[in-house]
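<backbone_tokenisation>
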Amino acid sequence: MQNRKLNPKLLWMQFEDVLAPRLGLTVKERAVYSYLLRHSLVVGKLRLQFAVMSLARTLGISIGPVRQAVRRLDELGTLRVLKRSKTGHLAEMRLPEKIRAIRPGRNGATLARGATGAAGEPPASALEATDFLKTWALRKSIHDRERGACFYCLRRTPANVHGLDHVVPRVRFGRNSYRNLVSCCLECNSRKGDRAAPDFLRTLYRLGRLTAAELDGRLRALKGLAAGKLRPALPENGK
């Protein structure tokens, strides 16, 4: 990888025409990925060490959005955070063609041709770019994924007393992604508020609302959710 000579023009086309639109990257996420790519693979380095504070200062962006951008880029597989410490992050970067969510589909479209894959877009890429609060059908797909049970307390309640909750609250830059939205009862939605989901689950355990085994299962489910393993079924035409 370190010795591979990159084609800057092709790399830019892959980024602008395929990677960014398919994954629904925000302007800040684009800026962070571009900067990290420029100082790693483009100069022949697979890994790089960086501090979020310094990166934010260089890009002229607040620390919070930069930290959230790094976290989401890691979730999407555009980079892999190998280590976090007080001195910064150690990350392994990935070229657009190596990112799993946008690999070519069965129709044979390839990144090398700059294809967008509109007809044969891989399901993963469609999911990553979707705002699941946008339509009633998309919101319903999150409820259907949980099969009528509250993601947090596991209670089954009527549909009219269920809501959608941002695992990472919007005030902390939580997105409307399927990785960050869960169906839950209104009681849990109200009780959780802006608390971290793992802390809220432990509170439910202390209150006797979850058994030890259920708590362990919910914590594993949270990790699976963030990793993109709990995928809802996209409604036809996304409507």
Summary: Strands lie at 47-50, 79-85, 88-93, 162-166, 181-185. The chain is about 40% helix and 10% strand.
